[in-house]
Amino acid sequence: MTRRYWNINLEEMMEAGVHFGHGTRKWNPRMAPYISAKRKGIHITNLTKTARFLSEACDLVFDAASRGKQFLIVGTKNKAADLVARAAIKARCHYVNKKWLGGMLTNWSTTETRLHKFRDLRTEQKTGKLNRLPKRDAAMLKRQLSHLQTYLGGIKYMKGLPDIVIIVDQQEQYTALRECITLGIPTICLIDTNCDPDLADISIPANDDAIASIRLILNKLVFAICEGRSSYIRNP
After folding, report:
1. What angle do CA 191, 193, 199 make, to 5 degrees?
2. pLDDT band at 1 (very low <50, low <70, confident <90, very high)
3. Is 133 within 8 Å of 124 (Cβ atoms)?
4. What are the pLDDT digits (tens) for 182-235?
5. Segment 94-137, tens digit of pLDDT
6. Is 202 within 8 Å of 188 (Cβ atoms)?
7. Where on the phi/psi map is residue 68: left (φ > 0), alpha (ψ -120 to 50), or beta?
8. Which fold has domain 106-151?
9. Would residue 74 be called left, alpha or beta, if left means φ above 0 and alpha means ψ between -120 and 50 degrees?
């Protein structure tokens, strides 16, 4: 794997609150190696380890992007949803930021059928075909289109299973993580002090509740993906 310098700064991470974990009563003992202290009833994440695993994750996505691999970013918390969408669009990745529909990956044939329906309805809307239907039929199809846009809009161009999945919140996205494990899809997971660090291929210990923390982690990964994509374009 390529080793590169990703400018991961401990002071910058502290300013973003990456080190703040959950309350000491709400933790997973398996996170003990990634916790450096307790302060005012909360665990403090060891940022040196955060930097190490974030760097490893950046190396992984850079190498994958430089080989034309496809990524899926998942994060459905309200405070993370917009960050996930913006990060994914910037790096030309697929994303899910509203609700993970069970079986989205493990039952890919059903998801593919829904995506075909979604694309057909979008085409019919753009060409004005929906507006030429009886009002009742048009209203029903427009509601269906709106529903599909909400839950599948971020993966509308996905033609097959992703090569790597980036998960913003392990607790919230446990079903997505289990599907990836079942299918053998490599995962990068942002984990807070209440998570299991042994489930993802690369677990990045960090605050998964603070917007600034989530933004910082995603920005580093997105930069690495974009750099990798540029390398792939230059050396097809």
Report:
1. 45
2. low
3. no
4. 999 999 999 999 999 999 999 999 999 999 999 999 999 999 999 999 987 665
5. 999 999 999 999 999 999 999 999 999 999 998 888 888 888 88
6. yes
7. left
8. Helix Hairpins (1.10.287)
9. beta
Alpha-carbon span 18 to 169, nearest angstrom: 13
The answer to whether domain 13-103+163-229 and domain 106-151 are alike in fold is: no
Q: What's the DSSP call for residue 54?
A: H
**pTM confidence score:** 0.93
- Read off the pLDDT band of 236 (50, 70, 90): low
* Domain covering 13-103+163-229 in this structure, CATH number: 3.40.50.10490
N residues, the chain: 236
C-alpha 138/C-alpha 117 separation (Å) is: 15
C-alpha angle 130-93-177 in degrees, rounded to nearest 5: 100
Q: Where are the domains of the chain?
A: 13-103+163-229, 106-151
Contacts 24+ apart (CB under 8 A), 197-202: 197/28, 197/30, 197/31, 197/33, 197/34, 198/30, 199/170, 200/167, 200/170, 202/53, 202/56, 202/57, 202/60
Whole-number pLDDT of residue 67: 94
Distance CA 94, CA 11 (A): 31
pLDDT tens sequence across 31-55:
999 999 999 899 999 999 999 999 9
CB 165 within 8 A of CB 180: yes
- Spatial contact of 173 and 76, defined as CB atoms under 8 Å apart: yes
pLDDT at position 54 is 97
User: What are the start-end ranges of the E strands in 1-60?
Assistant: 20-23, 35-39, 42-45
